[in-house]
Amino acid sequence: MATANVPRPSDADQVGEILASPEVALLVAELEATRWTGRPGYGSHALVGMALVKSIYAIPIWTRTVALVREHDALRAAIGGSVPSVYACRRFAVKLRRFQPLLDACLDRLTTSLHAELPEMGVDVSIDGSDMPAFANGQRYISKGGRERERFSDPDASWGHRSAVSTRRGGGFYGFKIDLAACSRTGLPLAWNVRSARNAEAPAAAPLLDAVRARGFNPETAAMDKGYDVGPVYDACEDRGIRPIIPLRNTPTVARGEHRPPTCEHGEWRFAGSDAKRQIAKWRCPTDECKPASRWIKADRLHPLIPRETPRWRKLYKGRASVEREFGNLKHRWALAPLRVRGLERVQLHADLTIMARLACALASTRAIPLAA
Ligand SMILES: [Zn+2]
Predict the structure, then answer these.
(1) From the CA of 263, how far away is ligand 1's center (Å)?
(2) How far is the CA of 283 from the centre of ligand 1 (A)?
(3) What pairs with residue 178 in β-bridges?
(4) What's the rounded mean pLDDT across residues 144-158?
């Protein structure tokens, strides 16, 4: 990524700049046109501004966002002078869910503009899911040995499994999962979806790839971890002209060694290119002494068109780290976690608004960097 000697704008300047950008200004104008406020009061400009402040300053709740803007002159000026109440912010979030298509269109504009600035965006994508623990208690009993819980404060949340991260052990958690397709080269989010934690990860891959393509990206490869190593994910990728980059689980066919390259008396055969249209890969005798010296193998989970033995596969699989990095970034720098809302719809809106701020800031800084001379 290019770095330039341009001072980073203050966060308050950035809020004003994003509100003025054509991608977000149109959302403000469209929300205004729906006259959803009903009564005179805070305009969409101030309320979209409050949502940006909440993510840019990584504040999990409206109460403290309002408190911050009240005592911060530059922020107050950036959102237009008057500070909406906590109640107005909450009502805005409720109403925004009714106008989800307008928010979706704004997210489309942001990714489209980023794509125009960064042509390599979306060529190699990485997909993964991550835990979002609920703002609710999922324990079955009220206390140890006590009575059973009758009402759960977040009925959409459920128990799921998460893997270990750093020093935190993997295990069960109660809440939601966010599935994310990130660009392996720029790290930017391309498409995402929130679901209850109990649902499996692999079926999320195909809809994410469709969402990425619907935003005008043309992915060539998709890297995923072992959790996605099932036949339908490979088919979903190849059906869309995308090469899957997924390591193998130790299934019976793998234990029997059926995934290995062909061998002969001269040694292990070498990969010699693939034909995506015919879905076959060519393998060649290492000394060319065999007759025939090469043969075509049909692509499948055990023999993908970019074989796992190649440096290209290894490089692309390393790129998968970008999606993990982006989860950490979104959770810690942009306050995607901890959740302070309940219910699938609200959690999805929270993710959308967080990623909107993330993408809008990325776009603003891309535009701020002058092209290298
Ligand atoms: Zn041979």
Answers:
(1) 7
(2) 11
(3) 130, 194
(4) 73
